[in-house]
């Protein structure tokens, strides 16, 4: 990962908010006086919860998207007048599904550590 890549990453609003959430979590945890082992277990537990929750949400997103796309040919094959509302409904369903995924990520357990997970994925992609 180059220095420019790091600067670009730091400038992204998504990573700024994630970094701030992680810092708040770190401040909260540091006041509890946990041992290194307890802290590692908590991080592992929260990251696991977050990843599992998001894995399930992404499956739901994929299935809903696939369902919308599968219905599209049937809507197109229907009568022209009846198809327009159906096409609009299908298109809106795709956007609503994406918004639901974004909302789910905001509600995910362990989301304070999502920044660590995202950062780890970004760094691994550069190697």
Number of strands: 0
The main β sheet shows up as: none
| Intertermini distance | 7 Å
Low-confidence stretches: none
Quaternary organisation of the protein chains? single chain
The proportion of residues in beta strands is under 5%
Tally of distinct domains: 1
Helical residue percent band: over 70%
| Rg (CA only) | 20 Å
Mean pLDDT: 77
Tell me, what's the shape? elongated
By secondary-structure content and strand pairing, the structural class works out as: mainly alpha
What's the total helix number? 5
What is the N-to-C succession of helices and strands? HHHHH
Features:
127 residues, 0% strand
How would you concisely characterize the structure shown here?
The chain is mostly helical and 127 residues long. It contains five helices and no strands.
Write a structural description.
With 127 residues, the protein is mainly α. The protein has one domain. Helices cover 87% and strands 0% of the residues. The chain contains five helices and no strands. It has helices at 3-11, 13-30, 36-77, 80-107, 114-126. Helix 2 packs across helix 5 (114-126) and helix 3 (36-77) packs antiparallel against helix 4 (80-107).
